[in-house]
Write a structure and sequence with these properties.
single chain, alpha+beta, GTP Cyclohydrolase I, domain 2, 4 strands
């Protein structure tokens, strides 16, 4: 049997962070949710049952957490920073989907939030 595609995902990671272009956002912050879908070769891990053969969720979370603590004007930039660090730290990542939702953004709308989604490809694995 051959694995065509394999993914690791972390969904609904919650953070309180200080991103935004409005000074009040930088002062009081806002709640954010981050979703990741990471294309990663799991061929060895499904056989070995060894965490050394896969992408450690905790290491991914720690990196995301570090980047969410660094204020940025745009969540687009924050998402790109997260992706860049993940690609540099874990060279076997083939593709990455990242979604950042700003809960209750200051725009006068009644909704769950506004955000962005990026789909990135690791140039080194093509």
């Amino acid at each position: 049997m051959k694995i065509r595609n394999s993914y690791i995902f972390l969904n609904g990671l919650r953070f309180h962070a200080f991103h935004g272009v409005i000074p009040q956002e930088r002062l009081t912050g806002n709640d954010y949710r981050v979703d990741l879908r990471i294309s990663y070769p799991l061929d060895e891990a499904v056989i070995s049952d060894d965490v050394a053969d896969t992408l450690n969720y905790a290491a991914v979370y720690e990196l995301v957490s570090q980047e969410m603590k660094v204020p940025g004007n745009l969540v687009e930039r924050v998402a790109y920073r997260i992706a860049d660090r993940l690609f540099r730290k874990f060279s076997s990542i083939r593709e990455l989907d990242i979604k950042i939702l700003k809960c209750n953004p200051p725009m006068g709308a009644d909704g769950e939030g506004a955000g962005i989604e990026l789909h990135l490809i690791n140039d080194k694995t093509e």
